Amino acid sequence: MKKMAIFASGNGSNFQVLIDAIRKGDLQAEVSLLVCDRPGAYVIERAVQEGVSQFVFQPKSYQDKADYETEILGFLKGLEVDLIVLAGYMRLIGPTLLQAYEGKIINIHPSLLPAFPGKDAIGQALAAGVSQTGATVHYVDAGMDTGEIIAQQSVEVLPGESRETLQDKIQQVEHELYPTVVKMLLNGMKEATPL
Ligand code: GAR
After folding, report:
1. Residue 131 lies in a domain
2. Domains: count for the chain
3. Distance, CA 98 to ligand 1 centroid (Å)?
4. Domain membership of residue 161 as a residue range
5. Is the ipTM of this complex over 0.95?
6. Which parts of the sequence bind (6R)-10-formyltetrahydrofolate (predicted)?
């Protein structure tokens, strides 16, 4: 069975659709760990409900990124995780995890990258007045949303569109796209070799 760790900071709707896809049998995988950098985030409650182990931490209690990523790496090694799935994890991944999981960390971002990287991609799209935006799944590298693109799906921005309706439309697309891409990647992967 392929194993993944999901990293999230907030609501966790993408965490939930991945769990739901596994339950429905659409995804042959296991979510071995939720990593969350925001105590109190709703995604933690979801993990509790779903019986998924959690590592919840406060970055400011650590000396630096290498310090907490080393601790995370210890958990991931122990669990023999195949894939790290960032789902609304609002933090750059540092060299500790990037080197250990090269080509095995993916992210979902609410825009058609390379347009509108970074924070508030939906607000950026509305401010730019574009007629199309969307969602992108990409490999993670050291940059901000700069890694190789795996899949994208577009969403139309209607005249006078509100942030809420646009966000809803993008999330609907994300909830189809992410399980599909995770399934494709896991199918093409060998079981994790111990690090
Ligand atoms: C998602 O829309 C995801 O694309 C975005 O955060 C949201 C998390 O929603 N990620 C980024 O903006 C990363 N730069 P969720 O917590 O409901 O899955």
Report:
1. yes
2. 1
3. 20
4. 2-187
5. yes
6. 65, 90-93, 107
